[in-house]
What we know:
The chain is of the alpha/beta class. It folds into 2 domains: about 10-225, Rossmann fold (3-Layer(aba) Sandwich); about 235-290, no CATH class. The chain is built from 10 helices and 13 strands. The strands form 3 sheets. The protein has a 6-stranded mixed sheet with strand order 5-6-7-3-8-9, with helices on both faces. A 4-stranded antiparallel sheet has the order 11-12-10-13, with no helix packed on it. It is elongated and about 80 Å long. The structure holds adenosine-5'-triphosphate. Adenosine-5'-triphosphate (ATP) binds next to helix 1.
Amino acid sequence: MTGRSTNPTYAVEGHGLVKTFGDFRAVDGIDIAVPAGAIYGVLGPNGAGKTTTLRMLLGIIDPDEGHRTLLGSDRPLSVAAQVGYLPEERGLYPSMKAAEAIAFMGALRGLPLKIGRDRARAMMEAHGMADAADKKVRELSKGMAQTVQLFGTLVHEPRLIVLDEPFSGLDAINQGKLEALIREQARRGVTILFSTHVIAHAERLCERIAIIAGGRIRFEGTVGEARDRLRPQVRLSTRVSDGSWRRALPADTVAENGAWHFSLPEEGIEPLLRALIDGQAGIESLSIERPGLHDAFVAIAGEAAAQAMAGATSASEEDA
Ligand SMILES: Nc1ncnc2c1ncn2[C@@H]1O[C@H](COP(=O)(O)OP(=O)(O)OP(=O)(O)O)[C@@H](O)[C@H]1O
């Protein structure tokens, strides 16, 4: 099978994707467009529909409605040799040696075994794992086995890498290494699409994100645009606790731990500053903080989804 392989602006596109399991609409009309060369995160709580969406985009399952394009082809499986996929369910043959397992995964994507073996050893060596190349998969630590599987996802040098929850099950050190590896691939021009329920990874890595909850896209754009959905937060403490200047504090002001908290007013901080100075409030501290992606996620996807994510995060931390 040879698919039409152009040089598209978008490495992955999905339009109106719908998937129903029995009576349950797991994915309810998703549009997604991943720019070529981008690191793109699909963010959402467990059960949001991330895996189902990725599987539809990759052609592992067919959508009930909608269509998708992968690397310019509307037949996703025809470009499989240019795609690397790390599924959520990890698994390697336990009795295979690590380097062999990597070469084997490459062979499944059309890479000659000999080349795969050489690349596997080189990759392991470059990442300080040369000693593990001839160890059986069952002898490796969980984190190392996961890294081996990741190398198997990369060994055929795909143009597009799709990683489903790649950080779960990894400790903090290995999570950092994975972030570095994702950046390294992106520098080479590879497109990376990954799903996660851990907001911090998406915030650090992604040029663009899609926030999915309940099978629908709740937000699509840059991390900065998501954060800009919320007004910056101001924290102010004054030496004097009362005075005419208090009338200048915004309506949403709350007092907490001896400081005033409120959203940055539309007109900026200057009018308030003037009132504070004229009223001799005695400014002790003043900070204006831009909300993080976590706060934006809470606002966009709703408190319930954020709580589900927090629960899932602590569960996966326990796993790690
Ligand atoms: N083959 C299937 N049969 C029935 N229900 C399914 C199937 N696959 C997924 N679902 C359901 O569809 C919903 C979305 O699942 P999906 O795996 O896409 O979510 P997710 O966002 O990837 O979450 P998770 O990280 O928990 O996998 C869930 O409620 C799940 O139980």
